[in-house]
Amino acid sequence: MSKVAVILAEGFEEGETLTIVDILRRANIECHMISTGGDMVRGGHDIVVKADAIISDDVKEYDMIVLPGGLPGATNLLDDNRVIKLLQEMNRDGKFVSAMCAAPIVLGKAGVLENKNFTAYVGYDQKIETTGTFKEDIVVVDGNLVTSRGPATAYAFAYKLVDVLGRDSLAVKNRMVYFNAFDAEKEENHG
Question: Is residue 42 packed enough to be buried (19+ CB in 10 Å), middle (13-18) or exposed (0-12)?
Fold first, then answer.
């Protein structure tokens, strides 16, 4: 069974984080929220969540590490040498390294984006120093790297994480009426 560590720093983007964790758990993937601080972590919109664990070398045993965006959450991850070291080690070991929104700046600092295709929040292609290639796609997968754009892309990102871990996101999408939601929106806007 795959294990995923979603890393939380103060100021994380709550919508992205909880969507990712929820969808992974719905797909029966073991997923833990790992705090860089204490047990309780305050998001960028003052929503406080209880982490499952505190960051440690145990994260290296996971199959995937995920960095949600948000500010100052992404900046706090960027400034945490434990996070940078984990990203580098997991990438070196060929494990999945994932980030969305503003968090790809952390991947840039860790050197994970070198010679890879990636995406990030609008304008962040100018803030990330890398030899990687920025794409405007909603979700970009390049080998063990998975990146996404922003809060509204959290569902697409989480479903892609399910897929790259070898599970069936279609079953989860159907249970969550993912496709029906967009059909209703089309009818509402064009009906």
Answer: middle
